[in-house]
Amino acid sequence: MSASIISVTDLCFSYDGRGQFILKDLSLKITEAAVTAILGPNGSGKTTLLSLILGIRSPQRGAIRIQGRELGNYSRSAMSRLIGLVPQGETFPLGLSVFHYVLLGRAPYRGLLESPKAEDLQAASEAIDTVGLTDFSTRLVSSLSGGEQQLAVVARALAQNPHVLLMDEPTSHLDLANRSRLMALMRNLVARGVTVILTTHDPNVAARVANDAVLMRRGEVVASGAVENVLNASNLTATYGVPVQVARVCGKPVIVVP
User: What is the CATH number of domain 4-86+162-256?
Assistant: First the structure.
């Protein structure tokens, strides 16, 4: 049985701190060196859960442990090296080339006024090459298409060399070719020992790339575990509130809403 790298226990979170919990007594485990997809309709708490794992918000109750240590026992610097984030929406600094934007991912490894070292420049170049943007490295990020900008955000996170990579709806702005490239990249990261956690509205994305799946509805876990056990018609219907059918194509589940 694979070891878990993140455990969430009885997590409750409210934005106003007084009730109306977005997450309610939520418990789950994230397998190390695997792709875990978190699925659910709008308002189910997927993005909120990522922000709690990242440590930028604190729960009212419950605990999050990473590698057996409670989240609060990590320094901000240690967290920045341990976990990378590909957000759903990114505001790009004006006037930055793709290379210099990706280089921002090396900030956790440098002092406040310290210039980039050779290893920082190399990490940025390798990350750009990994996502297929080598020919765009000198272009302004603001001049790229939406899909190309999304790949630049992924490259910035990869330059950080994280052990855990959080990805919030990473395929939402990608065409078929770049979506396929990103899915292949996730699998390659797992082969290198990286743990990938992504949120998605699309169960078919999870079926193609994930090892594990977590289904959420209204801040609670409907089902979690291996993709082949979780992505069935009963669980998906309960999660999305509409009838769902599941077929198998080339050994993978394909989800259809009649």
Answer: 3.40.50.300
